[in-house]
Structures are given as structure tokens and as C-alpha cells.
Specification:
Layout: E1 11-13, E2 18-19, E3 31-32, E4 34-37, E5 40-46, E6 49-55, E7 58-63, E8 66-69, E9 75-77, E10 89-90, E11 99-100
Parallel strand pairs: 3-10, 4-11
Antiparallel strand pairs: 1-2, 1-3, 4-7, 5-6, 6-9, 7-8
Length: 103
Amino acid sequence: MPGTANGDEQYIYTGSTYIGSNHSYSYVAPIAQQSMSGGLLTAAVGSNGPDVTASGITFTGHQGGSTTPNGSPIINITNYKGTRTPAIMKEIGGNKLDIQGLL
């Protein structure tokens, strides 16, 4: 299992690209420090890492006391990083993340 990756950064991995300027701790989770509103998020145990899909979700990143609108990207990940990552979303203490209206 990887370390705690206790760094303050926000990002989203869509399955083909990263949204957010820093994703050095992406080995922990494909989503970091995001408020989410609406849409559908699905996570399942894949054969060699988590499978994650998301659509219709409005993401807002939180980093260093600032917020960044990240839009509504489509996420389609199969066997994320080819490893057993410990989480789908990473969050360090001190950020209030609102998760509302997800299916």
C-alpha cells in the first residue's frame, strides 16, 4: 500500500488526462479534494485496480483555501494505474467538501 500522500492538491483523472496543475499524489486516488454536485458516480473493484465512471457531475477543486471550478468532465477509468489504490477520492484535513445529489 502506498504512503498517505498528505499533500494539498486538487485534481481529477478522467481516464486519459488530468485536470488540475499538480497530481503528484495520484497514485493514491483518481480524484482529489473535489466538491461534487449532481450526476452519477460509479466505482467498482476491477481485476487489477478500481474501475471508476462519472458523468453529469459538477466538480469544484479545493486547494490551499482556494476553489477551482473544474466543470463536468466525463470519467471513464478501467483498472486505475494497474494497482490496488486505497481510495477513489483523496482528501487531506481542513477542506470542507460538499457532495450533493449524486446517484
